[in-house]
Amino acid sequence: MTAPVAPTTVEITKIEASTLTAAPRPRRISPRTAVLIAVCVLWLAVFAFSHGQGTDTLPTASLTDVHGFFDTVKEWVADNRSSNVVLLALDVVRIVINAVVQALLSLLAATPYGLGYPEIGWLGSTLLFGWIAWVCGNGRVAALTVGFLVVIGVQGLYLEAMQTLAITFAAVFFALVIGIPVGIWTGRSRRVERVLTPVLDFMQTMPTFVYLAPLALIFLIGPAAAVIATLIYAAPPVIRLTAHGVRDIPESIDESVASLGATPRQRLRTVVLPLARTSIVLGINQTTMAALSMVTIAALIAAPGLGQVVVQALQSLNVGRAFNAGLAVVLLAIVLDRVTTAIGRRADPAVVAARRTAAVLPRRIAYGTGAAIALAAIFLSRSQLWAAVFPAQIEIGDLIESAVNTASAWVNTTFGGLTSALQEVVTTALINPLQALLEQSPIVVVMAAFTVIAFVAGRATLAGATLAGMVVVWLLGVWGPSMITLASTLVATVLTVAIALVLGVWMGRVPRVDAAIRPILDAAQTMPAFVYLVPFFGLFGPNRFTAIVAAVIYAAPISIKIVADAIRQLPETLGEVLLSTGSSPWQAVTKVQLPMIRHAITLAVNQALIYVLSMVVIGGLVGGGGLGYLVVAGFVQTDLFGKGLAAGLAIVIWGMLLDRTTQAFAHRTPLAPTAPPAPARRLR
Hints:
Shape: globular
Helix content: over 70%
Order of helices and strands: HHHHHHHHHHHHHHHHHHHHHHHHHHHHH
Structural class: mainly alpha
Mean pLDDT: 82
Number of strands: 0
């Protein structure tokens, strides 16, 4: 008997394309889809006859025994901070970190109002950072660094920018000191990898907001708590990428060096680190960008810098000031991204080899001259007032704020009807119905529906974890606010995925469109989450719609890129076959290409949910309501700390449940040969 021959890629694509011209056949609904449809129908039926019954009746301002327990814990920590051994040890950590932060602040950003001038004034720090950018990158990166720092100074925010950089540098320093050794250990030990991977998944899945309350409780509000929160959020990328670089080193190379009698330390220094250098530097880039994003949010626990300006502007409804500070944050993000990216290019082995063969002496002379200029600027900044503090005579921050406020008022006057109509349509057609379904359905019904969905996705284990998580949310006394947050999250996710499918397919099918849009998406991914609130805050005002729109724009880039990459990786012969069958572009997309990238679409949904939840929670600053509002209220009002902490725990639970459920669907979706694997983490 002749063995069966596997079909080739061309044959597979011909089979797929033949469905476009064949007679239409009724499609069978899979059992999983049938169960999901039945759940939705039964849920709607129960809601129609029993809405408002068995729901959460706890008023927003009311407190429960659980909230009181958290307040008691807060009081106990305050009373025993100087006597408990564990708290004393943690306080030592706080003191050490605070000393590093204060040293950097005094170096770059000491305020001229009673606390002395910075040791390196604006002129010295600007040219010093420019020289570093030149050495790490090239002249263009150096010019961009100097130019953007001067622009920030002209905005009247140089001091705040240096405060933000000081805290960011401190957080990145500790993240690298911890992350690189842990990454090396993880890359060389499968056992450590199995233990650490779920921890890293958890750290990257949690919205940034929820780090703040418990850390402020333990380490007090201020720069130290901000650095620790930033460290926790920013360390996973460098750990993962370092482990990836170490793991990809061929075993034969390591064994060859070991056979020559090299010690483990020598192998690490001469083989592991040089070969993993590119991946490690990429991890430094990702960690730095994550740190900047978290530092701005840490303004809620009194971290100084640009984040403070943004928060105060949002709370006072000052769109112009929020825009001015948000623009400065974006400029800092671009500078840090370009410098760390340039370092990554320099770490490429081919670039290293080319630099070794090039003339060294002229480059050293140029770098030495630049260093002398930077040192001269530092000397001037320590001896001349105009070089120590950015000259107020050339600051135009007030003019920018006034212009933006005027433009915002004009836009609202001119297009207020259009924006209000858009807001009304989305709110009436999507947000209100879904929120009513979640809020006014009996709690038991909501729990049962999500438990069945989890069972369909991942079977009994995930279903049990989902049910237990929802019960905990109910016991925390924040079921009602969590339904508001969940409704906003689901609406924003649906809108994000719709945009991702349209733009992703377009980019994947048309290379010129991809070349035009992808740089915009890359730039959008470097901006901290806070910045997305500012323009929509000016357009739509403080409400939940603003939070949803900002969440969609924040989450769309990664989802669009996932879909576009999956479309582009489909076999090239597929397009020729589809063209030969006479299929229309719509048929090609809907009947062949989208079904073939089902796995990538599910991954895009997973990433959209994670990003959206993080941004919707931050939307509590602009009237988004729900759990985000309670977290913010817990920072502002002492009597609501316990409820704010409970809301933070609820956010963690919902984030884990949504992430695990969508991951389960992704793993159970048939995998197309060219689709990328689904990682259990937040992508960047």
